[in-house]
Amino acid sequence: MTPRSKGPLAQDFCLDDYLMYNLVRAATTYNEEMAKALKAYSLDTIKWRILMLLEDKGPSSVGDLARRSVTKLPTLTRMLTRMERDGLIFRRALAADRRIIKIHITDNAQQTLDMVRAIGQSVYEKAVEGMSEEQICALVGMLHLMRDNLNRSPYDPLLSDARKSMDVTTHDT
Q1: How far apart are CA 127 and CA 29, in angstroms?
Q2: DSSP per residue over 75-98, as a string?
């Protein structure tokens, strides 16, 4: 049986066995667990994600944070305004080009992040319980591949075929 046979068009399709459904369920369950644990620190999962990204990659533009945090730009902009008001982040224009604004993590947010990092570790360990290091690495690799596949334009094969046919006709003349 090929993986495609377990998709929504399969005659024996079962939602509980569907890969995409289970990815969403796992992500939702993770977010719910993190939200419960972070609430005591006045954080939610979006703030947590933003702070972790800023710590990991350093100051970032709003657009880059939106892409990496998987948050729509208007939602992120509102969240950053609240986070700035709460003293978790600050904005600074680049000296070389004042039009470019970078988001920075504050010392206060770094201290909070240091305290709640154990929460993230605990939820992570709960999520991967029973998995070997090799299984975790393989799963991460497969998810990267899946994300790359989904990020490709659905028109790429059509464009590729069109280019090939253009090459053939160009060479024929």
Answers
A1: 9
A2: HHHHHHHHHHHTTSEEEEE-SS-T
10-residue block means of pLDDT along the chain (173 residues)? 66 88 94 92 91 92 92 94 95 87 94 91 95 96 92 67 52 46
In the block, which residue shows the tokens 């950053």?
A: 80
- Write down the pTM of the prediction: 0.74
Question: What are 61's strand-pairing partners?
Answer: none
**Alpha carbons 64 and 80: distance in angstroms, whole number:** 13
Q: Rounded to an integer, what distance in angstroms lies between the CA atom of residue 65 and that of residue 70?
A: 8
Whole-angstrom Cα distance, residue 60 to residue 114?
20
Concatenating the DSSP letter of every residue in 92-130 gives: EE-SS-TT-EEEEE-HHHHHHHHHHHHHHHHHHHHHTTT
- Cα Rg of the chain, angstroms: 22
